[in-house]
Specification:
The protein contains 9 helices and 13 strands. It folds into 3 domains: 1-49, no CATH class; 70-216, 2-Layer Sandwich (Aldehyde Oxidoreductase, domain 4); 242-404, Alpha-D-Glucose-1,6-Bisphosphate, Chain A, domain 4 (2-Layer Sandwich), CATH 3.30.530. Mean pLDDT is 81; it is low at 220-240 and 389-394. By secondary structure, the chain is an alpha+beta fold. Helices cover 27% and strands 28% of the residues. It has a 7-stranded antiparallel sheet, covered by helices on one side. A 3-stranded antiparallel sheet has the order 1-2-3. It starts with a strand and ends in a 5-residue tail after the last helix. A hairpin with a 7-residue loop joins β2 (7-9) and β3 (17-19).
Length: 409
């Protein structure tokens, strides 16, 4: 029997022939045409090993591929010392995958792998609380890059055909998964070289981690606290809860003395606290409050305790509070420092908090966003109380809205 010219035939009687396509198809489409007792099917099994793929040696080492591709990456980035943000300005990735069979598919593989590597380098992180609770179980806390965060890489190709494959192709896949995180880490270490030499860079390079590295290098010297004002006190731990913390400043059009007087006046303080229904005095600078707090679609009414301590009028104080409701518990402590400016007062705040229960299930990103909104409302009310409703009322409502959102002052 010979197989030639797309047909199978008898070498001695060439007229006895059948097209190969019919022989291959008939057992499937018309098995009744087969001789009696003949089972349908056409199968052949063969094994082939490239000459370069030898068996493992005495040290169990083995060559796993007949053709290796090559990758090189170059990254230029900048670091914002004020916010800790790392931004990739330009990224060049070059690949030698031998002869490209589908250039568009090759570029798609590279772009997808680059996006994944960028996420691993700058965003994606498994976070755990001090009590071992997992804090990044949803996409509200486990950040992944989107089209807005992924820059367009410059892709170049070098085609060096492989002598070991029929078409000269070497292979190309998600190589940037491995190269991109390392290249970004090296570029970051190089950017911080004027401040310090980094022997080990831990990924992802989140803003908080970057600011900590810059602070350790002396790039951002933290101002010493005023006399009598200690560092942030950790709030009581909440099992299974979320840890929140933030620092910032806001300008108020009133002198420090008036701002401080509002903080020490129970009646004025009740009007300052967002969602406060009632504030009752329990002792010297200690209050019991009835407060409604909403986070997204979750809203609860808390029975809270508020205490002012470490008072250094009119410069600084510590504000601590705790509360509980049917949806969860919360506690926090923060420092408030007042600095006189030409236009009034610059209020610096630094707080840490723990939230537990159902409220914590919304995720730390949403809670942090809600905390910023509540703080904006608090400072707007504080400025109105200190400067007088008439003075603040002169500002258009839309400007105050922009100020609350942090877009304008």
């Amino acid at each position: 029997m010979r197989f030639e010219g797309g047909a199978v035939f008898d070498e001695q009687m060439p007229e006895r022939r059948q097209p190969f396509a019919r022989l291959a198809a008939n057992p499937h489409w018309a098995p009744a045409l087969l001789p009696e007792g003949e089972a349908p099917g056409l199968r052949e099994t063969a094994f082939w090993t490239a000459p370069t793929l030898a068996a493992p040696d005495a040290q169990d080492r083995v060559n796993t591929s007949a053709a290796y591709g090559f990758v090189f990456d170059v990254c230029g980035l900048e670091v914002d010392p004020a916010t800790g943000r790392v931004r990739v300005d330009r990224y060049i990735t070059g690949h030698d995958a031998g002869r490209l069979l589908n250039p568009a598919l090759a570029d798609g593989q590279i772009r997808g792998a680059f996006a994944q590597g960028l996420g691993a380098a700058l965003m994606e992180e498994f976070r755990y609380g001090a009590d071992g609770s997992f804090q990044s179980g949803t996409f509200a806390d486990y950040l992944v890059p989107t089209a807005c965060e992924v820059p367009d890489p410059v892709i170049v190709h070098l085609e060096t055909p492989s002598p070991f494959t029929p078409l000269g192709a070497k292979g190309l896949g998600e190589g940037n998964n491995m190269s991109t995180p390392v290249v970004i880490a090296n570029a970051f270490a190089d950017a911080l070289r004027p401040l310090r030499d980094l022997a080990d860079v831990r990924l992802p390079l989140t803003p908080s981690r970057v600011l900590a590295l810059i602070g350790e290098a002396g790039g951002l010297a933290e101002p010493a606290p005023p006399a009598g004002l200690g560092r942030r006190a950790e709030p009581p731990r909440v099992a299974g809860g979320l840890a929140l913390q933030a620092q910032g400043s806001v300008d108020i059009a009133a002198p420090p003395e008036k701002v401080f007087a509002v903080l020490l006046d129970p009646a004025a303080l009740a009007r300052v606290i967002p969602g406060c229904h009632a504030l009752q005095r329990e002792g010297e600078h200690r209050y019991r409050a009835d407060v409604t707090v909403g986070v997204g679609l979750v809203k609860a009414r808390y029975e809270a305790r508020i205490e002012l301590s470490e008072i250094d009028a009119p410069r600084s104080l510590r504000l601590a509070g705790s509360g509980q409701s049917s949806l969860g518990t919360g506690s926090g402590s923060g420092t408030v420092r007042l600095e006189a400016t030409a236009s009034g007062t610059r209020l610096h705040y630094d707080y840490a908090a723990q939230v537990g229960g159902k409220v914590a299930a919304v995720g730390s990103r949403m809670l942090e966003g809600a905390a910023r909104i509540v703080l904006a409302q608090l400072f707007e009310s504080l400025g109105r109380q200190a400067a007088g409703d008439a003075a603040v009322g002169k500002a258009p409502w839309w400007r105050r809205l922009l100020a609350w959102l942090g877009v304008a002052r």
